[in-house]
Amino acid sequence: MMCRLYDVTRYGYQSWKTRGQSLREERDIELTADIDRVFGSVDGIYGSPKIHHALHQEGIEVGKIALLG
After folding, report:
1. CB–CB of 52/36 below 8 Å?
2. In angstroms, rounded to a whole number, what is the distance separating the alpha carbons of residues 13 and 2?
3. Which residues contact 36 (CB under 8 A, 6 or more apart)?
4. Suppose 21 and one of 25, 53, 60, 67 were both cysteines; which one would form an S-S bond, judging by CB atoms 3.0 to 4.6 Å apart?
5. What's the pLDDT tens digit per position in 37-69?
6. Domain coordinates of the chain in residue numbers?
């Protein structure tokens, strides 16, 4: 019933379900953890420009727009 509701084949659903996380999703999870770590280490007073700079200093490359989303 749900496959019909969302216009998805059962095969497509099962394929999606067993595929696991994409590399992009894994990277986003890691990046979120890094941002949370930096933000927490400064008691939440840094904004996105300072967080971007701190991550860059650690060798973590991230675009500024990723911090705003």
Report:
1. no
2. 10
3. none
4. 25
5. 999 999 999 998 999 999 999 999 888 665 655
6. 21-68
